[in-house]
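A favour between colleagues. Tell me how you read the following sequence-structure pair.

===
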Amino acid sequence: MKNKWVLFVASRYIFKGRGSSPVLAVLGIAVGVLALIVIIAVMNGFQLGFIESIVEVSSYHLRLENIPPAKTGEVLEKIRSVPGVRTALPFMEFQALAKGRRTSQQAVLARGLPADALLRDAGMKGRLDFEAGAFDLSGADSVLLGTELAHRLGLGLGDEVTMYSITGIMSANEEDGGLDTFKITGIFRTGYYEYDCGWAFINIENKNIFTSENDLMIGVKISSRFNDRHSLEQVKKALSPLPGSEEIKFSSWRDYNRSFFGALRTEKLFMFILVGLIFIVVGLNIFQAQRRAVLQRREEIGLLRAVGGTQRAVRFVFVCDGAIIGLTGAGIGLVFGLVIASNIPQFFSLVESVINFFIGIINILAGLFGAGRAGSFAVFSPTVFYIKEIPSRILPYEVIIIFIFGFLSALSAAWFASGKTSKIQPAEVLRYE
């Protein structure tokens, strides 16, 4: 290879005679990549948890309203035959006031579902964690309550809850004014506070509860929620031959909580930018170190040019220097970032154990002098935050982007810093040597 000496010289420059600057540059890139991977993974864990709770439990990927009552079965059959559709479920819902043992009442959104909904909908099954009982809507008076709602009402498994419809959909014999009593067969947790404190599921087949078939809706789950527009057109096409299909109202998950999803996307973008500033700072340090290296090695650069090295080859020596720093730093940060992001609960437990160890020592010393004792430390306490453990979700394409960004920050800094090599003339540098 004609210029194989370039890599040899670059490796000697980076490992010989430059003090700790390459080490600091590598550590800077590694810390930046590690921090960004871990932060974005935790943010993904929180955000995707919220999004999936909304999409899988509440809004579905696609929603159909104004279904012709006589055509419900045929509509469901045609929707389920569309490629990419995982499941299609009928449902009805109404607003109600729920009352348990305590005197206070709680606003509830009661949704009617088929008794086999969890068997048909794997996505919902994955989001519902039953703390007591199970998904049992086999009885006409069965009801499933969110864990926070059950706690507020002072109710447990097997207790009865009274619900009063405030939207008029629930059966109301005239005497009780829409009052019905249900038996709790399951208490669930979704991880999304709004649902856990304000949702209940009942059996849609109970004709004593639901009287208006015109309020029937169909929720559709597809293989990928990002293909919702294409799937929506396919569903419309499949239903077009049915009489009355022109009255059906179609919508996708993007139409629900649009501002909330937009806020999450903006939050993640700004967090990415803010943490990414680490790479700019490290890149500037690499730029200054490379410029200093160019000035310190003017004689060596002049000698390389004098023995036949081209401007491009000499500049490439310093670019390779930056590439080695970038690849090494980004690689180290990538490995440690993935290890920590994949074991976030264990990592935070370790951090808490170390901090609480030192707090324990301080408490012992404080006890000797009669001072007050400090409490234990928790990064995310369940008494303050509505989580059991820190969620983490690693998205491969984001990890690749972070790795490339860390590598390019070092490479671009070295490229711009090495521009001065083209201004060094061998005759001027070696004139007095």
